[in-house]
Amino acid sequence: MTIAIGCDHGGVELKQELIKHLEERGITCTDVGCHTAESCDYPIYSKKVTDLVLDGSCELGILICGTGIGMSIAANKVKGIRAALCSDCFSAEATREHNNANVLCMGARVLGAGLACKIADIFIDTPFSNDERHVRRVGLIE
Ligand code: RB5
Predict the structure, then answer these.
(1) pLDDT tens, residue order, the chain (142 aa)
(2) Whose C-alpha lies nearest to ligand 1, atom 8?
(3) CATH class, 2-141 region
(4) Which of the residues 43, 46, 59, 84 has an alpha carbon 20 to 30 A from that of 70?
(5) 134 catalytic, yes or no?
(6) Catalytic annotation on 86?
């Protein structure tokens, strides 16, 4: 599996922790940046990740900023993207099962690396339920 991962300056350290963790699991990470703590604009990195998810180069995306909120707002502007801001394991599982979310957003100023890695694992490992009601609701969004 290949995951697109991006962040702004607030998320650089957490992104590195996530990449290390996911690569140890055998998951390939396409890192679109940013790569330094110099202030930058999160919508640029959101777009890079959503492009890779939409063109099929990556199956899922992960976006990290200070809160995760700006990244989720930006990603959800893109048709075909269902970005979920998660700070807990239950939501990460439910948003894959119910919403077929294809981008996970997290806040580096909200979560420690241990919980963020656990949330990413659950998000990646949980399939869409394919239940008729959830297929219908996702279809209505699209
Ligand atoms: C950057 O200071 C901060 O605004 C950004 O990382 C993010 O939290 C925005 O939603």
Answers:
(1) 999 999 999 999 999 999 999 999 999 999 999 999 999 999 999 999 999 999 999 999 999 999 999 999 999 999 999 999 999 999 999 999 999 999 999 999 999 999 999 999 999 999 999 999 999 999 999 9
(2) 66
(3) alpha beta
(4) 59
(5) no
(6) no
Q: Whose CA is nearest to atom 9 of ligand 1?
A: 70
Question: Is the whole model's pTM more than 0.85, yes or no?
Answer: yes
Instruction: Tell me how far the alpha carbon of residue 71 lies from the centroid of ligand 1, in angstroms.
Output: 8
**What are the boundaries of each domain within the chain?**
2-141
Cα 142 to Cα 136: distance, rounded to the nearest angstrom: 10
**What are the residues facing 65 on neighbouring strands?**
107
In this structure, how many other beta carbons lie within 10 angstroms of the beta carbon of residue 111?
A: 19
In the reported structure, the alpha carbon of residue 7 is separated from the centroid of ligand 1 by a whole-number distance in angstroms of 10
Which residue puts its alpha carbon closest to atom 4 of ligand 1?
66
How far apart are the C-alpha atoms of 63 and 56, rounded to whole Å?
17
Ligand 1, pocket residues at CB < 6 Å: 8, 10, 42, 65-67, 69-70
